[in-house]
Amino acid sequence: MEILKYIGEISEMNKSLSEKQITINVSEVYHLWNHLMQRYNVIFVTSLLNSFVKDNDLKLVLDSGNKTLTKHTKLLEKELLNYGIPLPLRPPKQTQETVDFELISDRHIYRRILRGIQAFLPVHTMAFIHSTSPKLRDLFMSFMDEEMKIYDKYLEYGKIKNYLIRPPVYRP
Predict the structure, then answer these.
(1) 3-state percent breakdown (helix, strand, coil) of the chain, nearest 5
(2) What is the mean pLDDT of the chain?
(3) Which of 1, 11, 138, 144 could form a disulfide with 124 if both were Cys (CB 3.0 to 4.6 A apart)?
(4) What distance in Å separates the CA atoms of residue 91 and residue 45, rounded to the nearest whole number?
(5) Count of other CB atoms within 10 angstroms of residue 42
(6) Domains plus CATH for the chain?
(7) What is the Cα–Cα distance from 150 to 64, expressed in whole angstroms?
(8) Tens digit of pLDDT for each residue in 80-102?
(9) Rounded distance, CA 9 to CA 62, Å?
């Protein structure tokens, strides 16, 4: 399969923008654009929430997540530009420092990020399912794989910090 991937990359280098656009379907365009827009939003919200975090461990975890999101953003921007698809508007890069807000706890921030990861896993799956291009399926599959690994580690981190909502134990 790697050989087919390289042949596809070489043949794409010689194509004009209009020839490249013919090789991508409208669903793939939507998923590329939507993934990038969502990544922009998640980076913004994570940065905003990070300004409320008190626990240094959680700050490190959120910073690590932002690095992954930034890496994905660069890949998505490259693909969108490759096909001549306009990029969505970016939110501001910097969030303003805020006054310490006691109602937003580290537990709440952890759970908000966890829900975001959980909600995005099906988005990766649908993008993969709707893609007919092997190159884009590979991209979406890599995002899904990486996000699942992050989710797994994040869930274990939440157990250690006692941030998870624990349902009652079942005893028949």
Answers:
(1) 70, 0, 30
(2) 87
(3) 144
(4) 10
(5) 19
(6) 2-161 (1.20.1260.10)
(7) 10
(8) 998 999 998 888 776 565 555 66
(9) 34
